[in-house]
């Protein structure tokens, strides 16, 4: 009995001291859950592969990507200013956010590989978004493009650039990007990718499946290190055939430094692949890091809110 | 003994009732801020802040989730959360204070007031004393107040590159229309 008495007395007393924090306590449960994770990557691209990010609604991204010539090896060295005299590929793109999850874009690139003078149409859609409370642990984004060559057909029938009909000029990429921001500085992504080229040369493969991996390590508020690698699953016979023809295939590996300055994202990168589009750098990279056939490159992204 | 308990319980309930009557809350408080520089005007707004006033003691409270602020440019919103307010580390900003001259909130009218208290933003506490207005209409109070927040006071760093685009002192406006808390 005495205990109840004391308890009630305590309640009455506590009410008067309650005044100070009572107002704050009213909203204890108002902290929200399932908040989407932001800024997993700073750009829609990791280096040349896609990141999980899409543009927000009514945002326009003007992108210029450039890859120079080989730094070392036969075509590099001092005579080409370590590749700066040559450009292996250049891409200029306009990409636009239709909704906060869906974006579309067009681009033109020089092309490096079987085909040149490339026109690209692309679309990207963020399917699910990682949440801060790990209710959803990853972000999943889908990417697809169609690329057509505008070049004049080669006269040599065995060439990849010999076009009998329009569809011979076209290739496609389909990609699922699964990414996770592990903490403030580390984000990783896995990129299962399928590249389909309508026309390929003898012993090449129309469909090539590849698995890509990429990451971003932010080391200051403005700068981050980037890395990206693709492993194409090509048959051994096909690999051996190209090797015997002196065109050994390599897996593209890129490293980069990302600098963010408000509306710009600037990448300086080094990569062994000469091409910028997935349709080419995944199946057609014949240049190797170990032979000095890697190059400077930069990506510039300028985002406008329209 | 039994009488004692009944008495105390009644007392307790009475006290609860009077407290409940004096407390007004607002679950959709509007918070907005404005940064003006010759280079760029930046403004953002949220109406998801929560607030409460105790009409008896004058205690006043605000809380806002940083990531509810909406900007015109989504990139600014991302930078605001990621680089400036670091909303992953410091998800909310909070103000605990007092209205110095509490008007009778049951009486219609417009009352100039002074609000004094501690604001916690970006994990840093700072004491503010700012002017505001309480308007009571049909027994429902509305509070308007402006806070001049100096970014350095809350250890919010602006990189030299964009120092011309972001004002050193940001004007934060608070506006809440309150209802008696149930």
Number of DSSP strand runs of chain A? 12
Alpha-beta classification of chain A: mainly beta
The string of secondary-structure elements of chain B, in order, is: HEEEEHEEEEEE
Q: What does the main sheet of chain B amount to?
A: 8 strands, antiparallel, barrel
Oligomer: heterodimer
Low-pLDDT segments, ≥5 res of chain B: none
Class of chain A, according to the CATH hierarchy?
Mainly Beta
Biggest interface goes to:
A-B, 36 and 45 residues
What is the CATH topology assignment of chain B? Lipocalin
| Average pLDDT metric of chain A | 91
How does this model look, in words?
The complex is a heterodimer of chains A (306) and B (182). Chain A has 3 helices and 12 strands. Chain A is mostly beta strands and 306 residues long. Chain A has a 12-stranded antiparallel beta barrel. The termini of chain A are far apart. Chain B has 182 residues and is α+β, with helices and mostly antiparallel strands. Chain B has an 8-stranded antiparallel β-barrel. In chain B, a hairpin with a 2-residue loop joins strand 7 and strand 8 (140-150). Chain B is elongated. Chain B starts with a helix and ends with a strand. Chains A and B meet through helix 1 of A and helix 1, strand 1, strand 2, strand 3 and helix 2 of B.
What is the structure about, briefly put?
The complex is a heterodimer of chains A (306) and B (182). By secondary structure, chain A is mainly beta.
Set out the fold topology:
The complex is a heterodimer of chains A (306) and B (182).
Chain A: H1 2-25, E1 59-68, E2 87-97, E3 102-109, E4 118-128, E5 139-149, E6 170-181, E7 186-197, E8 207-218, E9 223-233, H2 236-244, E10 253-261, E11 264-271, H3 278-281, E12 295-305
Antiparallel strand pairs in A: 1-2, 1-12, 2-3, 3-4, 4-5, 5-6, 6-7, 7-8, 8-9, 9-10, 10-11, 11-12
Chain B: H1 2-22, E1 23-36, E2 41-54, E3 59-65, E4 70-71, H2 74-84, E5 92-99, E6 109-121, E7 124-137, E8 140-150, E9 169-177, E10 179-180
Antiparallel strand pairs in B: 1-2, 1-9, 1-10, 2-3, 2-4, 3-5, 5-6, 6-7, 7-8, 8-9
